[in-house]
Structure formats: structure tokens, C-alpha cells
Amino acid sequence: MAADAGAARSASAPNWHEIVLTALKRNEVSLVPYVPDRVLTPLIQGLHDDSSFTTFATAREEEAVGILAGAWMGGRRGALLMQTSGFATLPNVLASLVVPCQIPMIMIVSERGTLGEFNVGQSLVCRTMRPVLDALAIEHHTMTRLDELDFIVDRSIKQAVATQAPVALILSPLLTGGKVFA
Predict the structure, then answer these.
(1) What are residue 36's phi and psi, to 5 degrees?
(2) φ, ψ (nearest 5 deg) of residue 29
(3) Of the chain's two ends, which shows fewer C-beta atoms within 10 Å, N or C?
(4) What single-letter DSSP state applies at residue 98?
(5) With a cut of 50, which residues of the chain have pLDDT below it?
(6) Which of 21, 23, 75 lies closest to 50 in space, CA to CA?
(7) Which residues 6+ apart lie within 8 Å of 17 measured at CB?
(8) CA 12 to chain centre
(9) Closest alpha carbon to 32 in 101, 85, 80
(10) DSSP category for residue 52
(11) Which helix (H) or strand (E) holds 175?
(12) Can you name the residues that pair with 33 across neighbouring β-strands?
């Protein structure tokens, strides 16, 4: 009987993607471009299904950064969804536009390159992402636990907006389940 109660609780408990979506909405983040990613699919689908958000795919991460920079300058809050390898394309635009222009770019990154990764390129980018964020003085948090997720996402968005500084929210495979390899 205790197992049934536990199953009922976990069936009704929010998933990571529902928590992130709710935190985005609570913080008036309404524009969410993304580069398609299997791990982020449930969040992307939830954003498409919610009329509070304008959500669309972009060809490249830098394109999404440009869109979000313009949106911020026009008074709209947004967030970029991507995977670890997509982050590798961003250091120049972060260093030359986002950081010096004080744009509170909210980057939600599904982490690849760890915990059983088969792709050497993903592993290399995973090892360099955090040092690059540190070198650019960009706040970043790796989320591994469901019980801390809402607090970290909510407070990170609030801080990014208040300080007009970017933030990277890295979704660990420990939280999302990661990409499943056949």
C-alpha cells in the first residue's frame, strides 16, 4: 500500500519541465526561441501549448541571442533553450553583445557530454562550457535536483533582470534523465 501512495504522489508531482515553464511564466518571460533538442522536447512542447509564450525554432543559437537582445531592448523578456554543443557557438556574441550591453540573457542548457555520453565532441564542449562561462563572468547553475529547481530558476531569472546580467541554467542528466542512447 505504501508503494501505491508513493506512485500516486510521483504521478501528481510536477516534472522538471513543468517547474521550469511555471517559473518562466511567473517571471514574465514570454519569448522563448530554441534550437531543437530531444531532452528539451517536453519543455518545448509545453511552451508551444501555452498561449502565454511565443516559442519558435531558430537555425542557430546566435540567431536566438540576436532575437532576444532585440526583444529585451524593446521591453520583452525571453529565454534561449539549447543543448551543451549549441553553447559552444556563443562565446563571441556573449562577449561582444550580451555582457557589455547588460542584457539579462536567460540560457537554459540541456547538458550533454557526461554520464555515459558516446560523442567525443559533446564531452569536450561539456568540459569547456563552465570555464567559458566563468571567463565571461556569467552566473551559472547546474541543476540536479527537482526539489531545488523552482528556487534556482526563479531566483536566477530575478537576479538576471535586476542586475541586467546573463545567466546559464544547466539541466543535468541527473535531473532530466538525459538523452537516451540505443
Answers:
(1) -50, 140
(2) -85, 115
(3) C
(4) I
(5) 1-9
(6) 21
(7) 40, 42, 43, 46
(8) 24
(9) 80
(10) T
(11) helix 173-176
(12) 56
Residues in the chain: 182
Per the structure block, which three cell numbers stand in for 141? 547553475
Give the pLDDT of residue 13.
78
Per-residue pLDDT tens digits for 145-168? 999 999 999 999 999 999 999 999
Average pLDDT, whole number, for the chain?
A: 91
- pLDDT digits over 125-139, tens only? 888 899 999 999 999
Please write the tens of the pLDDT for every residue from 166-177.
999 999 999 998
CA nearest 156: which of 173, 133, 178, 176? 133
Q: Which three cell numbers stand for residue 97?
A: 553583445
- β-strands 167-171, 139-143 pairing: parallel
Helix (H) or strand (E) holding 42: helix 41-49
Cell digits of residue 80: 534561449
Instruction: Confirm whether pTM is higher than 0.85.
Output: yes
Distance from C-alpha of 28 to C-alpha of 115, rounded to nearest angstrom: 34
Residues 83, 152: Cα–Cα separation, whole Å: 19
The CA distance from 148 to 138, in Å, is 20
